């Protein structure tokens, strides 16, 4: 059995869930982490003592050589888009995640749209604009209010589902002129608004083989009943009943396989997670977006359901041997509820002391992931980000998992805490 010294890059709740799953593996030797300021991660791994910065990536490479790191696992999209995989992979070192070219599927929405159109992959009709006036004129020429998206990476917040054309014009102004998402807003996508239930279908792709993971659903809006602004995700659950076996095969056939083929035709040997954000429209499943990594928070329920060794899966993905893997999932359902800071998503307020973590973790079936927390100088856990904590619970069915998650949530308190109370309750449907 080949064992690994693993470096995990990323500092949120997704990485905390990945780190816990890595720690369960008998194939793990030593776990190194890039973000020791996350107290959850700090408990599970040794801190990397060189900068984790693409401009000095040679130092991270030297660190990996020196410590015999044989597997690097990259959680978030930014390091993938910056090319960490290309910089860190070597003869003796596997890296889990797509190359910089593959990461464009998420980092450059207009490129992704182009790829989908060329391969006839079902997605909303759209046009890309580099000039705000041209984008506004296009909005005015259309019969309906559209969806406006920043083309680059905007932490899940760069999408405006507009009710009126005025809102769309405002969104273009925010994205392109005011640059509220920085350079991600150099280009906008103006997209037809679709309607239907949403689901996230994640697959591991090893260049050619595809292993579809149990379907998940996340809740992107800030408030109950899908009200309020889009966020990085306020909760998720798995399995999502909106995708039955027949729908899963259809999505694999009409979306995932053609996407991997199209990537290959573009010269990209895609290895890592291919995350399809989907809308199940009356005309069939359509792609809202691709991500090139585990969803956050979808990863948390997925890791809670995983019964196999995570290192087996990551290694098989990186080495092109997914066809030799027999993955096992627990029969349980899993729910993850996000606790967000006061002021999230616009201006999260930090530094509030968090109470009740031990009591919450004692609820049966519950684990807690740290997303945006740190220890203050008195050793207390305080808020330090927008999405602060994830409360993940398993149960024999969704209802039991929900009850356990919310029993744990009710133990936790910090000033201004925001939480949705309807995670996992009903299929999310975005009506046009
Ligand atoms: P995205 O980050 O592209 O998945 O978009 C975030 C959220 O905006 C999605 O989960 C949907 O709820 C919504 N959305 C994105 N694109 C569309 C669309 N074309 N029609 C309707 N809603 C959309
Ligand atoms: N939960 C959505 C995302 O990770 O982008």
Description:
- The chain is an alpha+beta fold and 432 residues long.
- Among the domains are: 4-103, Rossmann fold; 125-191, ATP-grasp fold, A domain (Dna Ligase, domain 1), CATH 3.30.1490.
- The protein has 14 helices and 23 strands.
- The protein has helices at 13-23, 39-42, 57-66, 77-82, 84-88, 100-107, 109-118, 132-141, 165-177, 245-265, 299-305, 310-319, 357-361, 398-409, and strands at residues 4-9, 28-33, 46-47, 71-74, 94-96, 126-129, 147-150, 159-161, 188-191, 196-206, 210-212, 217-218, 221-223, 227-230, 235-238, 271-281, 284-291, 333-340, 366-370, 373-375, 381-383, 387-395, 429-430.
- A 5-stranded parallel beta sheet has the order 3-2-1-4-5.
- α2 links the parallel β2 (28-33) and β3 (46-47).
- α8 (132-141) packs antiparallel against α9.
- The longest helix has 21 residues, at 245-265.
- The N and C termini lie far apart (53 Å).
- The mean pLDDT is 96.
- The site of glycine has 7 residues, from loops.
- Glycine is lined by residues 156, 218, 233, 291, 295-296, 298.
What is the gist of this entry?
The protein is of the alpha+beta class. It contains 14 helices and 23 strands. The longest helix has 21 residues, at 245-265.
């Amino acid at each position: 059995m080949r064992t690994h010294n693993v470096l995990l890059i990323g500092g949120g709740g997704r990485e905390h869930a990945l780190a816990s799953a890595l720690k369960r593996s008998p194939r793990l030797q030593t776990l190194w982490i890039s973000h020791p300021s996350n107290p959850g991660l700090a408990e599970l791994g040794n801190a990397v003592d060189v900068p984790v910065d693409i401009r000095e990536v040679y130092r991270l490479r030297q660190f990996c050589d020196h410590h015999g790191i044989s597997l690097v696992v990259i959680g978030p999209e930014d390091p993938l888009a910056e090319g960490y995989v290309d910089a860190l992979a070597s003869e003796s070192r596997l890296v889990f995640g797509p190359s910089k070219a593959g990461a464009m599927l998420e980092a450059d929405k207009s490129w992704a749209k182009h790829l989908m159109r060329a391969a006839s992959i079902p997605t909303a009709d759209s046009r890309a604009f580099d000039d705000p006036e041209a984008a506004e004129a296009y909005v005015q020429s259309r019969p309906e209010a559209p969806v406006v998206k920043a083309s680059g990476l905007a932490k899940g917040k760069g999408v405006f589902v507009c009710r009126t054309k005025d809102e769309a014009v405002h969104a273009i102004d925010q994205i392109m002129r005011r640059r509220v998402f920085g350079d991600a807003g150099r280009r906008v996508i103006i997209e037809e608004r679709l309607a239907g239930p949403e689901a996230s279908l994640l697959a591991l792709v090893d260049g050619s083989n595809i292993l579809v993971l149990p379907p998940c659903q996340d809740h992107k809006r800030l408030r109950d009943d899908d009200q309020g602004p889009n966020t990085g995700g306020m909760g998720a659950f798995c399995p999502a009943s909106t995708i039955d076996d027949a729908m899963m095969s259809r999505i694999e056939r009409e979306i995932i396989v053609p996407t991997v083929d199209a990537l290959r035709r573009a010269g990209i040997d895609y290895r890592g997670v291919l995350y399809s954000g989907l809308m199940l429209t009356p005309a069939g499943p359509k792609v809202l977006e691709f991500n090139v990594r585990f969803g956050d928070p979808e990863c948390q329920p997925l890791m809670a359901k995983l019964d196999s060794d995570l290192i087996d899966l990551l290694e098989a993905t990186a080495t092109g041997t997914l066809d030799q893997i027999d993955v096992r999932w627990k029969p349980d359902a899993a729910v993850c509820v996000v606790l967000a800071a006061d002021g999230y998503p616009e201006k999260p307020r930090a530094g509030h002391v968090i109470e009740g973590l031990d009591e919450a973790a004692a609820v049966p079936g519950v684990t807690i992931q740290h997303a945006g927390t740190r220890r203050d100088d008195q050793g207390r856990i305080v808020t330090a980000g927008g999405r602060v904590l994830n409360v993940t619970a398993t149960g024999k069915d969704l209802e039991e998992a929900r009850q356990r998650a919310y029993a744990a949530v009710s133990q936790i308190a910090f000033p201004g805490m925001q939480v949705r109370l309807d995670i996992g309750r009903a299929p999310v449907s975005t009506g046009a």
